[in-house]
């Protein structure tokens, strides 16, 4: 390699993926009157949160796992990179993988613009 090639390679920065805050369950409403058959609202809110989280991740996997079988050129045309999709698939459940992938996409776009 020539010195000029090494110098131009040093201008490239490693892509740093965004750090996202995980979601958390919503606080249940405070009731003024509790009846004997009032369900445990905190438990219901937590259960609803986890069902929504699992459905969201299942939906993401159903959309993006087939994309991993495609060529890198096709993924590039769509605007994604294979490493970003694999990274998003391994995120914790509380982090919305679709939002994380979109933030990655925006960050890459901003990095390419001078």
UniProtKB/TrEMBL annotation:
Top-level taxon of origin: Bacteria
Extent of Basic and acidic residues compositional bias: 13-24
Name assigned to this protein: DUF1127 domain-containing protein
Spans annotated as Disordered: 1-28
Native source species: Marinobacter algicola DG893
